[in-house]
Amino acid sequence: MDKKNIQRIRIMQYFIEATVKIIKEEGIENVTIRKIADLAGYNSATIYNYFQEVSHLIFFAAMTFLKEYTDALPRYIAQGNSPLEKYILIWECFCKYSFAEPKIYHAIFSSDLGGQPEDLIQKYYTIFPTDITDLPEELIPMVLESNLTKRGRIALERCVKEGYIKEENAEEINEMATLVWQGMLTLLLNKRRNLSPNEAAQVVMNYIRQIVLNANHFEFPARQ
């Protein structure tokens, strides 16, 4: 990497770190361009030389909070003895961490990111590559995908290939699981359900297990 790109990444990191600090101290809803610029030591206009949209900068800052989830993910799937169990465990891990930080996960997976949001996660990991250096190779394609529906389909792929999920049922299972998660996240954000993160995760996981069971006509035992 040449010096110009190194300098560019360094300045982007300054802005991201400033945004993270504001999120931790004031909440993601209180992030403003002026606050970011003042904290980073640059003028507000400079931010747009590095980030196409303000929402992109908030996205990158929110991504730093995802490391706890990506660190936990290998431990979760290690408990599974089959692709189907691992698929369920991937969702369990995601529900646990996303419902504990609904605003963060909304910023990453649900918010309006303006133009060209598709490559943002991959771009983030070029700036902070050490965040996923310990991930097993099998998880990298899913983690690098920014579209939640596509992430879910990647997670389901081994189940299809090894016959645990019928090919004709895969899209439906994936879509329903994604929508259940999205619905619960919206309810939590809007304070329409008085549930703890753990309670919300249990509700969603019960539905996801039922979705898999009903689509494939076999019983999958609930985890405690």
UniProtKB/TrEMBL annotation:
Q: Which GO terms describe its molecular function?
A: DNA binding
Could you tell me which Gene3D superfamilies the record lists for this protein?
Answer: Tetracycline Repressor, domain 2
Its keywords, alphabetically, are: DNA-binding
Q: Which domain of life is it from?
A: Bacteria
- Name the DNA-binding segment ranges: 32-51
Report the residue ranges that make up the HTH tetR-type domain in this protein. Answer: 9-69
What this protein is called in its record is TetR family transcriptional regulator
Which species is this record about?
A: Collibacillus ludicampi
